[in-house]
């Protein structure tokens, strides 16, 4: 594998006021004809800020069909070609951002991302996760072309359900616990050091700002902690992969997520929420109980799930073994925690965590 540095998007804005002049903003980027793909689910949060009419550029609008599939990619590609656009603008959640990247990279045009939820760093990361029309995972694809601009408007993001932001926080927190496994012990080049520091910044700011940021959502009043954590979820998290590449990759927390998604009981939970539980299992496997305490204190503050019962499961649940099998497959990121982790070790770590939480509750 070749180590590569991909710093990220060409410009990033975390401010209010840009959306009102979006058409002039696009023209200033040298764009004249754009296709705007809008996720109807997030439109309510952005609608009142967008220009009533696009005058500076010619804009065609279409609704995202809800899935980042090859079929939806083909439909948008045809639309982009038909209107001869020079850029595509995505307004919505992670799947909208992903399908935009798929199309823009396929026909080699610019793209601008306007996220309406902060659940992942999809607006920044140069890769797309592709699903079937029925929502089954197919694969992920990496790209060379990055966004011309990502526009994060706190007024928009604060309107989304808090569960998205919380999932974004735990998915981003995992960057530190998973990514630092390899980087901690190796001699880091300057670029790897940037990746390492980016992980550390994710961790530091989440620990410092999470509680107040959540307060901002509950009271619908933007504060500096909320603005900081938007940077962390989109830009800093995106920079982890950009500079650390595969040295900062996923490990135990995402492996736990990958296994759990095979159980119908957890269907209702967001990616980042399951990864958040995975952090605890990974730390139990590493026997880092002081870190478990620190993460539990954070989850307690944020009212986040931390045990199997919170996910409609228990340690005696028969199908849990199926999920653990997936966590321990040969190619699973679980083996970055340490080589050849066994089914039994993972089961024991989950059991220990349950017992530990029981003890604490007494
Ligand atoms: Zn993730």
From TrEMBL:
List of residues binding glycerol:
171, 254, 271
Q: Which domain of life is it from?
A: Bacteria
Q: Tell me which Gene3D superfamilies the record gives.
A: 3.40.50.1970, Dehydroquinate synthase-like - alpha domain
Can you give the residue ranges of the Alcohol dehydrogenase iron-type/glycerol dehydrogenase GldA domain? 12-154
Q: Which GO terms describe its molecular function?
A: metal ion binding; oxidoreductase activity, acting on CH-OH group of donors
What is the required cofactor set for this protein? Zn(2+)
Q: Which residues are NAD(+)-binding? A: 94-98, 127, 131
Which key words are in the record? Answer: Metal-binding, NAD, Oxidoreductase, Zinc
Q: How is the cofactor bound?
A: Binds 1 zinc ion per subunit.
Task: Tell me the Pfam families matching this sequence.
Answer: Fe-ADH (PF00465)
Q: Which SUPFAM superfamilies match?
A: Dehydroquinate synthase-like
Q: What is this protein called?
A: Alcohol dehydrogenase iron-type/glycerol dehydrogenase GldA domain-containing protein
Q: What organism is recorded for this protein?
A: Dolosicoccus paucivorans
